[in-house]
Structures are given as C-alpha cells and as structure tokens.
Amino acid sequence: MILLIKLILAHIIGDFFLQPKTWVKEKEKLKLKSSKLYFHIAIHIALLFILVFDITRWPLIIMIGISHFIIDSIKLMFQKKSTKRLWFFIDQALHIISIFCAYYLFTNQVFNISNVISENTLLLITCLLFLTQPVSIIMKVIFNKWNIEKLTKGNESLKDAGKYIGILERLLVFVFIITNHWEAVGFLITAKSVFRFGDLKESKHRKLTEYILIGTLISFGIAIITGIVYLKLI
C-alpha cells in the first residue's frame, strides 16, 4: 500500500506544485506542440522514480507516465473555455483511476485497507499537501462561474490573501480533527464569522455574502472529510 500512496503523492506534487501557471497557459494555447507538456510528463516520471526508489518498478512508472500524457493530451484537444471546469475534474479523476489500475496491474495486489496502518506518516503528508495548493485550485475552478472581481469591486485586498487564509484554515481544521479537538473547529468557524461579519454587513452585497459562505463551507467541508478519511485509514 505504501507504493500506491507514493504514486498518488507524486501526482499531487507534479500536477499542483511543480506546474507553473505559465506552463498551463502555454499548453492550452499550443496543445500538443507545447514543450511544457513534455516537460510536465518528464517531471512526473522523475518524481515517480525518486519517490518509488525501486528501478524494478520501471514498467509501472512508465505506464503511469504514458497514461498521464494521453489523459493530458485528450484534455487539451477537447477542452474549451466553457468546459474548462468540467475537464479539470475529468482530468484529475482519470489520473487517479489510471494510477490505481496501473498499481494493481503491475503489483498483483489485492486492496486491503489494513495495510495503510503502518504508513501513517506518508499518508499524513499526502493529506496535508492535498489541503494546500490542490484544494485551492479545486475551489478556484469551482468558483470560476462567478466573477469575484465584480463582487469585490472597490474593496481591494492583499494579493492571494484569500488563498493563504484558506490553506491555513484547512490545515488547522485537519489538525484539530486528527487530534480529536472538534470543539476547536467550531471556535475557528466562529472566529472567522466574527471577522467577516463587519465586512459583509458593511458591503450589503448579498451575492458576496453567499459567495463567502459557500467558499467557507466547501473549504471546511473538504478539510473535515479529509481528516475523517485519514482517521479511518489509520
């Protein structure tokens, strides 16, 4: 099972941490002609070799690399501006499915959740990484249908402040849950509500209020679910 976690960890690092926005834009513009697409795949394969650290697993790693290239290529060819959000989730789902398929195909393993017990540290790292940049990108994709610039026009904030606040609050919620301090989660929600109440009351924008409430609930919800899954697996 530790091998499977390493494969997923490599995907998270390669897709969300080592892929600059400029690369994504170039890939969307040039599609298969973009050199960044091939750099992206090379980084994934390199990460897999580094994390797996077992040269005998090269068929598994190459298979995942090839499947990643095929999935990304399909996304670039068929994705349109109006369907970017849909293709983001399809793309990520296909990557995870391909990792699972390759793992069970090349290892002849039978899934047994009890095998995760001895891999707590790696699982914890994977959960924490997931709650940072990946969830921020996921939420950004979800909220692309609303124009936040219009909702906050005339009320500028610090650059990327919302993203970092979200990352910190998710990490705190996750830590509170795995340490069995659910009351602290309630305190965090209350504290955030107090800070936001004045702004929302002053702004008198119902849409902005709904936007913030939905974002908060999704952010906390994902962190809570991740914490519960982690506790179940260990």
TrEMBL record:
The keyword Transmembrane helix applies. InterPro entries: Phage_phiKZ_Orf197. The chain crosses the membrane at residues 37-53, 59-78, 85-106, 121-143, 171-191, 211-231. Keywords: Membrane, Transmembrane, Transmembrane helix. It comes from the Bacteria. Signal peptide: none annotated. Pfam families: DUF3307. The keyword Membrane applies. This is DUF3307 domain-containing protein.
